[in-house]
Amino acid sequence: MGHLIHFRAFNLRAAHPMDRTQLLSLLPHQGPALWLDQVLEHDASSISGLSAWSYLQPFGADASPCLLFEAAAQLCGAHGALYGSEKSIDAALVGKLNALQLHHEPSERSGPLLISATQEALSPAGALYAFTIYSRDRLLLDGRLLLVLVHA
Predict the structure, then answer these.
(1) CA separation, residue 137 to residues 99, 103, 144 (Å)
(2) pTM
(3) Quick check: helix, strand or coil at residue 81?
(4) How far is 30 from 28, CA to CA, in rounded Å?
(5) Which of 16, 70, 144, 147 is the least buried, fewest Cβ under 10 Å from its Cβ?
């Protein structure tokens, strides 16, 4: 996959929501490269947030919803930045995307997308997450991704 996420120092471990401005200070993604609009809640093992269909527009009207794994990867990166080990994490690379399943192709691409991720495993080398993306209360996409951690 080869997607690199550089972490910024951020000391927020409370489980309260984060808006786009806070996400811009946490993740390196700026402007349209940031596919997250809000983090709704988080704890040491999981995180949930909102994205939008509009992030697929640059890829055309027929862009696959499978590309929304990018928003899930960013959400997992945010979780890693918030709950990483005492060792400083400089970056994360999406090392593997696995079991990606598109559950339906919606006829209308509008409204918020609810993304949830649960950390299934953590080692000094990386973190494995299972994620789901819902559109209008219906499961759209799910899968697993491995973030490979680059320590400073």
Answers:
(1) 21, 13, 20
(2) 0.86
(3) helix
(4) 6
(5) 16
